[in-house]
Design goal:
The protein is of the alpha/beta class and 439 residues long. It contains 16 helices and seven strands. The chain is flat.
Length: 439
């Protein structure tokens, strides 16, 4: 089976210049040494040999992008045939295709091998085969899907992404948006399939690159609809502070032109309130929890399509109040964190120990005990960086240090329950930090 590199043919000034093959080599499995065969293969890959004659060789593991033509002189069967043909299936320089010159009439064997492979794949994948069926679409099927995409998108401007975005922003019907996103996402899949199949003329039937941009716009708007639906149904508000709810509101609040300024103010106020609360490092603070619940109350189970001017004004005032309280809470948090060298763990611990059944009425006395505990614990970790990999050891070590700093050095009375409580909180803080968990 001869292997030929890219043709040495060039075109210039409408004249064709050909240079004939100048070098060739024969590689057989039973002639020559392994090093000699390797040397000839390397010579071919480097462009120093133009034509290779091989027999039962180089079917697998042979990768030479410049190989662009196969001359097949005998029938090759089963997987060996597919392995052979894939030697020329890579693009190279200006060559999009590889070429096979068939002197042995391999078409029948090729069709049989493909069908056998498909049947084997189908038997292995079972019901999942439907997910891979796109890999085997015919040109007629691709044309039909392209036409379907055109029909779905007919009423929308697919040439201007900004106008398209404005058009779909007015859509609040989830099923309609699902239809549009499905068509656009299918266009992305077809683009890859067409390139894989080599039917490049089909790429001219749609502006696939533009549709990829539009699919992002459509998917974003569908996500807004889903967020709005979940929020109004009160499905889950635990992730409220990470959701750009102001975008949901702004997209769905129906207002007249004279109310746009008010809607914009609502969006801005909600954004700064959400971000102020979201930046709080102590989200177990009772005040934080109450502010977050108040934010949820303002928008849960509300029909965002029917927010009135009066409701917007009331929400803006309520949001301003939440924002100012959250801002004051953040100011106090930052002051306390600075006392502990910006260590959030100890700032949180300080607050918990002052909130419920405080061990002492003196914050300065509690600070001295916690500051001493922080220095002692951090020293232990500094001396043994792997210490935190053993949580049970940390628990025992921390218990000893808590008793020493609170009871022995700072005269803060501790009973067994208080000691266990403090120890559990500080161990959890260190382990959360070590494993990257949210406090």
């Amino acid at each position: 089976m001869p292997l030929a590199a890219e043709p040495r043919t060039s075109y210039g000034n409408n004249k064709k210049y050909e240079s004939k093959v100048k070098t060739a080599a024969v590689i057989l499995h039973d002639i020559g040494t392994k090093d000699e065969r390797k040397n000839e293969i390397d010579q071919f890959k480097d462009g120093n040999i133009d034509l290779l004659f091989v027999f039962n060789m180089l079917l697998t593991g042979f990768d030479a992008p410049r190989l662009k033509k196969l001359y097949i002189g005998r029938v090759i069967k089963s997987h060996n045939l597919l392995q052979t043909l894939t030697r020329v299936n890579r693009t190279y320089k200006d060559f999009k295709y590889g070429y096979v010159v068939d002197f042995a009439d391999i078409q029948k064997e090729f069709d049989k091998t493909n069908q056998d492979y498909f049947n084997e794949l189908q038997s292995e994948l079972g019901h999942e085969m439907e997910h891979y069926s796109n890999l085997f679409k015919s040109q007629e099927e691709i044309n039909a899907e392209i036409q379907e995409i055109k029909e779905v998108l007919f009423h929308y401007n697919t040439q201007n992404a900004e106008i398209f975005s404005q058009q779909i922003t007015q859509i609040q019907d989830k099923n309609l948006m699902l239809q549009i996103t499905k068509a656009l996402n299918n266009a992305k899949s077809l683009y890859n399939l067409i390139r894989l199949s080599g039917n490049y003329d089909l790429l001219e039937k749609l502006d696939f690159h533009k549709l990829t941009v539009l699919s992002r716009e459509a998917n974003n708007h569908l996500a807004l609809i889903n967020t709005k639906e979940a929020f109004e149904s009160n499905v889950d508000t635990s992730n409220l502070l990470n959701i750009a709810l102001e975008d949901v509101l702004f997209a769905f609040v129906k207002v007249r032109e004279e109310e746009m300024v008010l809607a914009d103010q609502l969006k801005t106020t909600l954004q700064k309130t959400r971000e102020m609360l979201g930046g709080n490092f102590d989200q177990k603070d009772p005040l934080f929890i109450s502010l977050k619940e108040e934010l949820e109350r303002l928008f849960k189970k509300k029909n965002l399509n029917e927010v009135t001017k009066e409701e917007m004004e009331a929400n803006i005032n309520a949001l301003e109040k939440i924002y100012l309280e959250a801002k004051e809470l953040e100011r106090k948090n930052q002051l306390l964190r600075a006392k502990y060298d910006n260590d959030e763990k100890y700032a949180r611990l300080h607050k918990r120990l002052m909130e419920k059944d405080p061990l002492t009425d003196s914050e300065s006395k509690l600070f001295e005990a916690l500051q001493g505990l922080k220095a002692a614990v951090d020293l232990q970790i500094l001396q043994n960086s792997k210490l935190l990999e053993n949580e049970s050891f940390v628990d025992r070590m921390m218990m000893r240090l808590v008793i020493d700093q609170f009871k022995n050095k700072n005269n803060i009375p501790l009973d067994a329950a208080a000691t266990k409580r403090i120890n559990g909180m500080i161990v959890k803080e260190y382990m959360n930090e070590f494993y990257g968990r949210v406090a």
